[in-house]
Amino acid sequence: MQTYLVGGAVRDQLLDRPVTERDYVVVGATETQMLEMGFTRVGKDFPVFLHPQTKEEYALARTERKKGHGYHGFECHAAPDVTLEQDLQRRDLTINAMAMDERGQLIDPYGGQSDLEARVFRHVSNAFSEDPLRVFRVARFMARYKGYGFTLAAETLALMRNMAVEAEIKAIAAERVWQETARALMEPHPFTYFDVLAQTDCLAFWFPGWRSANAEKAAKIEAQFTSFKATLPQRFACMSYVLQQYEDSASLISEMLRIPNDCAWLARALQQEARCWLDDTETSAENVLQSFNRIDLWRRQTRLDDLLHCLTMLQPDAANRLRDIQKAAHAAAAVDVQHIIQQGFSGAHIKPELEKARLKAIQTQLKAN
Questions:
Q1: Which of 71, 132, 144, 337 gives 187 a disulfide partner, CB atoms 3.0 to 4.6 angstroms apart?
Q2: In the CATH scheme, what is the homologous superfamily, with its name and number, of domain 1-110?
Q3: Are 18 and 9 contacting, i.e. CB atoms less than 8 angstroms apart?
Q4: In what order do the strands lie in the sheet with 48-50?
Q5: CATH class of domain segment(s) 132-206
């Protein structure tokens, strides 16, 4: 039985990046032996175990054979006679197909180290095309490692394009596409993820109405994401605002990918409210009040913060105007309904008076600014 550190931990160690998690491959062992040593099996489809102390993942060396459609259409073979080289061969990129033994010796049968030094993403074998989700995974890696100067090997890009025209790229579970997308959005260069998808013709199907962004504009917004520590909903909303070519694309994409409600709502609200909050001709007190009503400011004030963060990241030069909107929101939200009731209004008459008082508070604040 031999144990090897594999995959991302080896890659990032060679790149001098922090290693956040470690995965291991065990060669020459059986499931029974792993359980007898105190490991706990957690893999439903593959023989993956948790170490009894560290809780790190240990997987039995395995080979895979495509026999059906989709992510689960693989036949897995894990046995003591499966070699480390066979296990590494099923991986996606050469830089992810390296291993390190317990003495720190590198095992690199597919040229991962040279590709790492050349900053190239290259597929290990044509088996890459058996899992269409790898198109999105590689795009996510590009979003993470663009700052290191990585590029896609021409043959890998060509293979990804061929995969995109196959029916299988459309058969990927929407949840898995969103999972990769959500992770990519939190990387340093999320625009690169969508740019790679556009290059491989996957963008049009899964993100209808979106397009690649201007590189200079993308870089500025990504810097803002980092500066503001933007959340996932904020990043998705901003990306949607920048990349979409027609207004209802955010709704369509949200339905296709079954995107979480907070992300979907913020993307739609940003598109809807941006003009009112930024355009001189639209920022009347009446329009601002209607906007506050649409976002349900009175019960969900955190929505105001999300929208203000998004618009500030997208248009930093509008910071003063957005502060005026924020002050108007606080003034309107401070209107006390109990004061209106004490004035003798009741029942159906309360709401119109509350609207008048909020409108007056907004007018007063906007004029003061």
A1: 144
A2: Beta Polymerase, domain 2 (3.30.460.10)
A3: no
A4: 40-41, 48-50, 57-60, 23-27, 2-6, 99-100, 106-107
A5: mainly alpha
SS (H, E, C) the chain: CEEEEECHHHHHHHCCCCCCCCEEEEECCCHHHHHHCCCEECCCCCCEEECCCCCCEEEECEEEEECCCCCCCEEEEECCCCCHHHHHHCCCEHHHCCEECCCCCEECCCCHHHHHHHCEECECCHHHHHCCHHHHHHHHHHHHHHHHCCEECHHHHHHHHHHHCCCHHHHCCHHHHHHHHHHHHCCCCHHHHHHHHHHCCCHHHHCCCECCCCHHHHHHHHHHHHHHCCCHHHHHHHHHHHHECCCCHHHHHHHHHCCCHHHHHHHHHHHHHHHHHHCCCCCCHHHHHHHHHHCCCCCCCHHHHHHHHHHHHHCHHHHHHHHHHHHHHHHHHCCCHHHHHHCCCCHHHHHHHHHHHHHHHHHHHHHHC
Whether the CB-CB separation of 196 and 142 falls below 8 Å is answered with: yes
| Residue that the structure tokens 């720190």 belong to | 104
Tokens of 271: 């598109």
Helix-helix angle 319-333:285-294, to 10 degrees: 70
Mean pLDDT of each 10-residue bin along the chain, 369 residues long: 95 94 95 94 86 94 73 75 95 97 96 98 94 95 97 96 83 94 98 96 91 92 96 97 86 92 95 90 89 95 95 94 94 90 84 92 88
165, 145 Cβ separation under 8 angstroms: no
- pTM value is 0.90
d(CA 366, CA 68): 62
